[in-house]
């Protein structure tokens, strides 16, 4: 495990590469954007590949700089969501954009409560953690919205920088679809980039967007996820939701829909697809493989694909950008293939296989063999004698250091000649002289200390000089690091290795000794000051010239004063010495940590990693899984061992250490150091083995297969390409849904071959693209296919449909627009077979098809020559439809409405027509394909629904007015019945009700009620029911007779009405209604009798008077 970590550490600190096989990038600028954790991982891999194999425009501190190639990761939690091995260290801090939000829980709650977020679900579940999006897609999108202004500025700057030199720009966006961030912000990021390109006036330049979506199985291959059923289910739901949205957006223009979004400081309204080409990346492995290996291999395949698209062709006449060419070919395939099902078929499903020289293990193997020959003892440590010799040789004993510090100092005060009288009268004169002298001597010490504590200006060793740390470093490097008898590990231990002995410990002893000496000098200060005072007193007491006593005390005073100031200079000497030693120790310690310890660790890790990579080569391991493993490791080993034997290992490694020392930016905070170390190592190995490192894959194939001429070599290359093609086809089939017809997924291939490959046989040369990337042959396959051709789509839909709580899984979940209901299934309706139906989707589709058929009947949708169209009519005449209408003009209004309905879709009355894309259907399947296409276009469905609603509204108004006329007719017929029975026109007998009239001279009887009829007991009600159905001629006859009777009413003629009142007393009515209490129409009977009795009372009141 520890060994693997060292190998990872070395790889993360820059990749070894063969500098002799780099290629130029194509002429277009390229931006690689990673969204979320998976996006970050793959963009990091891509940057590694670009730095290894694409020739830079310049180098900064030895690290490659590609002016027109840019990288950016957009994430919500600052690190990958996958938790897998990542090479994020290859990305600079400036290549990250964090979607941050202070107090996200509060901000999200405020946004949900507001009305300005017309996409956010107000019932979105609360986050339990503030780390990133928490796997909730709406939260990921919310974070983008919170940072939209900053993100737009960052993307605009990135686009501007990449396009320098008036370049066309390819923007490649990578994301997983199952997480809460990447798949959630993919569409917004694409549309923001499109908007930037348009607003910046980049129409003169071609900005092409490529989307690379890692399908859910990529993340689901990770053991930590696959072992968590709840998490796996949530990721499947997210993945299906994201793919559902992408499928809708990729057909946005044909569907007639729009992507509209307000980002507070700017807005977007677009009818375009989010990207020009959308690639679906399935997991590159089998379900029974190690999950982490599958995940890593998938990322590597995507990175190799990106590199293949990036490199420039080596011959003129080739289209410069292969990505644009593949995009055009996928569109052509999608438009021309005869289809069984209606679906968006423009997704590119890429496959890649390659045979390439395994430079990583070769370089590591060669490095390991050189390290073996350069036999440094990693545990070598100095003894006391080594340190004594080092100190003596470099004059670094305490006394020698002190001697150099004081070499310009004078430890005697040079007083002038003073007369005793002068000393007594001008007491300060010698003191001021001594102060001036001391100050000058202190400055000499300070200057010497500064010279001796000069820091190390670089790592180029130089003998001699004043700087103590330079002396220490130079001697350690020249005398020990490069000497195979000692080596860098010995030198590092000599300087500061634990437990010692080491130079840092010796310096600690020097510092302690200096402090002791300083303390001793300080202890003499009081004694010397007292001597000065005593001699000065004696001098003042003496008289000048008296027995010579004044001259004697004058000399004694000057000597005491001089001793005091010399003593003070000694104190300053030890103070400066202590500070010098402290400073030198700090410098030595820093040198140990930032150079020797760093070099020691680097060499240890390099040795361990080289050794593991060497074993990796010998065991025949395969790094990415995308390669065709054809090399014989034993044969490799023999040739490499022979090459190593011919190299002077000690001289070579000594040269490497010198170069590392001179060029590597040792110390903390070096951003370019890791890449530079990889470059130094790579160039070093290339210089030692030019014959091996200069070989192309063509050379290796020629040697391996024994091809003796160009024709034989061309056949070897052809066979290799055939094998690669077979491998890509097998991988493609493994990810495809077996129910989908393979004939509808035509595969295209492109081959990247080195410039030195001879002309290939017919059928291969046309698809070959020669590049300077001469260490590999790459087969790139791709097919245009729909989402339902992906093997896991049916399972994803099943999981999605079974989860009841889908809050937060779609970009739009508001009352205004809810994509949970709005978006169709990306699986065509006709593709479903028994066992794959989903009840909700089935019911939805059946409803839509029913309304489609209704629209066909109404001539809203019709087939016009070679296309299906939706006819959009003008807006309804609301005045005609909605204004109140009287019975008198209802018939005229009904006629106008019928005319509007029947002629609404005549040519001159149409507002516009909208075409429903049919797809290129197979013969005999046109209707099925058309139905599939219609079901996947919700915006067209809304247009059809709107037109049907117009017809329904017209028909509704017609029905309403017709009902008005019918009710008026019924009311008039009922009033006629009441008047006729009250006036006696209709006669009420004992057990029946009849109407008698003459017909051709004979009397006829119309029986309106008798006991045998259904409501015979409710005589008047039954009579009315039959009266409603009499002909208009009969009704007119009754009306004329009734009018005549009412005009000539007498008391006798009112008796019929009075008898009716007597026969319908409350007691009788109770009996009648009780007879029909179980009848479903009892309420109608009861209501009729209420009206009947009310009308009877009015009649009698009106005419009895």
Radius of gyration, taken over Cα atoms and rounded to an integer in Å: 49 Å
Major beta sheet, specifics?
6 strands, parallel
Which second-level CATH architecture of the domain at 24-243 and 275-312 applies?
3-Layer(aba) Sandwich
First-to-last CA distance: 117 Å
Instruction: Identify the overall geometry.
Output: elongated
Flag low-confidence runs: 1-14, 79-87, 621-625
Oligomeric state of this protein: single chain
And the CATH topology of the domain at 24-243 and 275-312? Rossmann fold
Name given to the CATH homologous superfamily of the domain at 24-243 and 275-312? Tubulin/FtsZ, GTPase domain
CATH uppermost class of the domain at 24-243 and 275-312: Alpha Beta
Helix vs. strand class: alpha/beta
Q: How many DSSP E strands?
A: 20
Sheet with the most strands: spatial strand order: 5-4-1-6-7-10
User: What is the overall pLDDT average?
Assistant: 85
Amount of helix: 55-70%
Number of helices: 40
What is the beta-strand fraction?
5-15%
């Amino acid at each position: 495990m520890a060994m693997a970590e060292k190998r990872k550490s070395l790889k993360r600190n820059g990749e070894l590469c063969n500098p002799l096989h780099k290629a130029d990038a194509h002429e277009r600028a390229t931006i690689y954007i990673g969204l979320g954790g998976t996006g970050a991982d793959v963009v990091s891999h891509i940057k590694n590949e670009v730095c290894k194999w694409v020739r830079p425009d310049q180098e900064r501190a030895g690290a490659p700089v590609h002016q027109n190639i840019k990288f950016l990761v957009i994430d919500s939690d600052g690190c990958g969501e996958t938790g897998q091995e990542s090479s994020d260290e290859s990305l600079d801090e400036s290549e990250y954009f964090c979607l941050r939000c202070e107090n996200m829980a509060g901000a999200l709650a405020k946004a949900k409560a507001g009305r300005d977020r017309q996409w956010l679900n107000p019932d979105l579940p609360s986050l339990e953690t503030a780390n990133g999006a928490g796997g909730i897609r709406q939260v990921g999108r919310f974070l983008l919205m919170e940072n939209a202004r900053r993100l737009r500025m960052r993307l605009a700057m990135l686009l501007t920088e990449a396009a320098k030199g008036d370049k066309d720009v390819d923007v490649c966006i990578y994301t997983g679809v199952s997480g809460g961030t990447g798949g959630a912000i993919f569409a917004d990021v694409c549309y923001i980039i499109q908007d930037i390109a348009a607003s910046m006036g980049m129409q003169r330049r071609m900005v092409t967007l490529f989307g690379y979506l890692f399908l859910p199985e990529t993340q689901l291959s990770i053991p930590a996820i696959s072992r968590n059923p709840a998490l796996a289910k949530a990721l499947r739901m997210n993945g299906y939701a994201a793919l559902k949205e992408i499928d809708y957006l990729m057909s946005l223009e044909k569907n007639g829909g729009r992507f509209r979004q307000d980002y507070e400081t700017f807005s977007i309204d677009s009818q375009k697809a989010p990207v020009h080409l959308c690639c679906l990346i399935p997991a590159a492995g089998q379900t029974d493989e190690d999950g982490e290996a599958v995940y890593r291999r998938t990322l590597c395949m995507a990175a190799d694909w990106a590199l293949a698209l990036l490199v420039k062709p080596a011959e003129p006449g080739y289209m410069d950008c292969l990505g644009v060419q593949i995009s055009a070919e996928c569109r052509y395939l999608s438009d021309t293939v005869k289809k069984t099902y209606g679906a968006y078929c423009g997704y590119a499903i890429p496959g890649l296989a390659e045979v390439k020289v395994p430079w990583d293990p070769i370089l590591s193997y060669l490095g390991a063999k050189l390290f073996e020959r350069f036999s440094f003892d990693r545990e070598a440590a100095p003894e006391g004698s080594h340190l004594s010799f080092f100190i003596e040789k470099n004059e670094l004993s305490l006394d020698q250091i002190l001697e150099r510090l004081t070499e310009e100092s004078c430890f005697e005060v040079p007083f002038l000649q003073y007369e005793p009288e002068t000393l007594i009268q001008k007491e300060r004169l010698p003191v001021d002289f001594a102060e001036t002298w001391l100050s000058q001597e202190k400055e000499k010490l300070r200057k010497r200390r500064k010279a001796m504590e000069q820091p190390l200006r670089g790592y180029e060793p130089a003998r001699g000089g004043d700087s103590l740390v330079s002396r220490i470093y130079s001697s350690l490097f020249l005398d020990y690091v490069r000497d195979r008898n000692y080596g860098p590990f010995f030198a590092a231990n000599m300087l500061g290795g634990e437990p010692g002995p080491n130079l840092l410990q010796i310096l600690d002893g020097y510092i302690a000794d200096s402090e002791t000496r300083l303390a001793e000098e300080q202890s003499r200060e009081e004694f010397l000051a007292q001597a000065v005072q005593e001699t000065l007193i004696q001098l003042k007491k003496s008289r000048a010239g008296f027995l010579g006593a004044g001259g004697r005390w004058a000399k004694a005073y000057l000597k005491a004063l001089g001793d005091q100031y010399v003593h003070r200079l000694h104190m300053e000497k030890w103070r400066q010495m202590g500070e010098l030693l402290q400073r030198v120790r700090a410098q030595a310690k820093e040198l140990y940590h930032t150079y020797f310890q760093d070099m020691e660790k680097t060499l240890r890790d390099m040795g361990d990693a080289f050794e593991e990579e060497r074993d990796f080569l010998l065991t025949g391991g395969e790094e990415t899984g995308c390669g065709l493993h054809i090399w014989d490791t034993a044969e490799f080993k023999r040739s490499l061992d022979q090459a190593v034997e011919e190299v002077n290992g000690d001289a070579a490694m000594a040269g490497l250490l010198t170069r590392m020392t001179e060029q590597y930016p040792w110390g903390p905070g070096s951003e370019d150091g890791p890449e530079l170390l990889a470059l130094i190592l790579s160039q070093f190995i290339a210089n030692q083995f030019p014959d091996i490192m200069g070989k192309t894959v063509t050379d290796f194939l020629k040697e391996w297969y024994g091809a003796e001429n160009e024709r034989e070599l061309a056949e070897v290359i052809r066979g290799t390409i055939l094998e690669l093609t077979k491998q890509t086809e097998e991988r493609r089939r493994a990810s495809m849904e077996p129910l989908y017809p393979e004939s509808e997924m035509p595969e295209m291939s492109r081959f990247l071959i080195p410039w030195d490959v001879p002309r290939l046989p017919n059928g291969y040369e046309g698809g070959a693209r020669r590049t300077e990337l001469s260490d590999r042959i790459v087969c790139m396959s791709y097919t245009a296919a729909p989402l339902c051709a992906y093997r896991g789509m049916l399972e994803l839909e099943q999981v999605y449909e079974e989860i009841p709580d889908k809050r937060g899984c779609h970009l739009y979940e508001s009352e205004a627009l809810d994509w949970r209901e709005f978006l169709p299934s990306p699986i065509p309706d006709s593709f479903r077979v028994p066992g794959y139906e989903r009840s909700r989707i089935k019911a939805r589709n059946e409803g839509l098809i029913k309304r489609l058929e209704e629209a066909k009947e109404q001539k809203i949708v019709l087939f016009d020559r070679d296309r299906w169209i939706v006819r959009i009519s003008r807006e309804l005449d609301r005045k005609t439809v909605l204004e109140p209408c009287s019975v008198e003009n209802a018939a005229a209004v009904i006629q106008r409405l019928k005319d509007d309905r029947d002629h609404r879709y005549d040519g001159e009355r149409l507002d516009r027509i909208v075409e429903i894309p049919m797809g290129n259907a197979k013969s005999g399947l046109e209707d099925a394909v058309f139905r599939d296409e219609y079901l996947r276009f919700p915006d067209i469905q809304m247009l059809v629904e709107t037109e049907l609603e117009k017809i329904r509204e017209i028909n509704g108004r017609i029905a309403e007015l017709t009902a008005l006329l019918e009710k008026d007719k019924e009311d008039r017929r009922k009033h006629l019945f009441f008047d006729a029975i009250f006036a006696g026109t209709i006669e009420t007998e004992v057990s029946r009700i009849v109407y008698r009239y003459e017909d051709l001279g004979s009397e006829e009887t119309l029986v309106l009620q008798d006991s045998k009829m259904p409501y015979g007991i409710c005589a008047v009600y039954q009579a009315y029911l039959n009266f409603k159905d009499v002909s208009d001629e009969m009704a007119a006859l009754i009306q004329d007779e009734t009018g005549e009777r009412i005009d000539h009413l007498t008391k006798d003629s009112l008796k019929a009405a009075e008898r009716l009142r007597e026969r319908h007393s409350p007691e009788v009515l109770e009996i009648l209604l009780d007879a029909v209490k179980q009848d479903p129409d009892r309420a109608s009977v009861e209501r009729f009798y209420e009206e009947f009795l009310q009308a009877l009372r009015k009649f009698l009141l009106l005419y009895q008077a």
